[in-house]
Amino acid sequence: MKLFCSVLVVSSLLFLINSCRQVVLSLDDIYPDSSLKIKYQDDYKRITFFKRINEFKENPIGHNKVVFLGNSITNGLRRHFSKFNRSDVVNRGIDGDISLGILERLDELIYYKPKAVFILIGLNDFFNDLTKMPEVTPKFVTKNIIKAAHTIKRASPKTKIYLQTILPINTQQYQDKLKKDTGNSYYWLEPEFEININEQIVRTNEILRNNDIFQVIDLHPLFVDKNSIMSKEYSTDGVHLNTFGYQNWIDIINPILKRIK
């Protein structure tokens, strides 16, 4: 009998040890491996991407959270989280991230099954010379966004998914600041360039709005000026938001957050 009990205890301990190992392994596996190559992600964006991924590993989402998923605009929102008046909000914004990038980092969300996910992505897909990237179109970007939402929802049916329309940009304001700071500018942001980024954004947003599965928070119209570009009132450089821009966004999101318990 004593031998049986000893074997039982040892077996139980081995089971617990193996279970712990599995948890550790599964936690490690939910983040992108540093060997991952993401199409259309340049070297600078890759460095920024994995630097932030390492931060995520040190501070996992946790359970029963509300997650904001996106690029630098979302990343900057974390400086204003106190205005949400709740402690369950987590930021998963990465500077320079693209729609293919968020598809590679959904496992953490799937593992923790958040209460809600707010997705804002797509600007950086278009922030380039698109004549060299013919695949990157509004349909391509929207397909990736919807795929991300479906991937989360299938694995975590109770998670509420909110898609947010891409914000406009003010190319002249951005170019002016870039020239002032660095002496350089981007030829593909010039007015005469054959592909207009704001037009790509508008077309993408139209497709997002017409999806009949996920709720869309239409941010875009609330940030444009009379010329249908990013209002200088809301931006530091024509792309990124200033304090007034973030407050405008927060005012839109807060009523929705209050309904999420």
What topology emerges from the helices and strands here?
Layout lengths: L1 H28 L13 H16 L7 E5 L1 H6 L11 E5 L5 H5 L3 H6 L3 E5 L2 H4 L11 H18 L4 E5 L6 H12 L14 H13 L5 E3 L25 H15 L4
Parallel strand pairs: 1-2, 1-3, 3-4, 4-5
Helix pairs in contact: 7-9
Describe this structure in words.
It is a single chain. With 261 residues, the chain is an alpha/beta fold. It has one domain: SGNH hydrolase (Rossmann fold). Helix content is 47%, strand content 9%. The chain has helices at residues 2-29, 43-58, 72-77, 99-103, 107-112, 123-126, 138-155, 171-182, 197-209, 243-257, and strands at 66-70, 89-93, 116-120, 160-164, 215-217. A 5-stranded parallel β-sheet has the order 2-1-3-4-5. Strand 1 (66-70), helix 3 and strand 2 (89-93) form a beta-alpha-beta unit. Mean pLDDT is 91; it is low at 2-25.
Class from secondary-structure proportions: alpha/beta
Q: How much helicity do the residues have? A: 40-55%
Fraction in beta strands? 5-15%
What spatial form do the alpha-carbon principal axes imply?
Answer: globular
In CATH, the homologous superfamily goes by the name SGNH hydrolase
Instruction: Quote the CATH topology.
Output: Rossmann fold
Q: Biggest sheet, open or closed, and with what strands and sense?
A: 5 strands, parallel
Termini separation:
52 Å
Secondary-structure element order, N to C: HHEHEHHEHHEHHEH
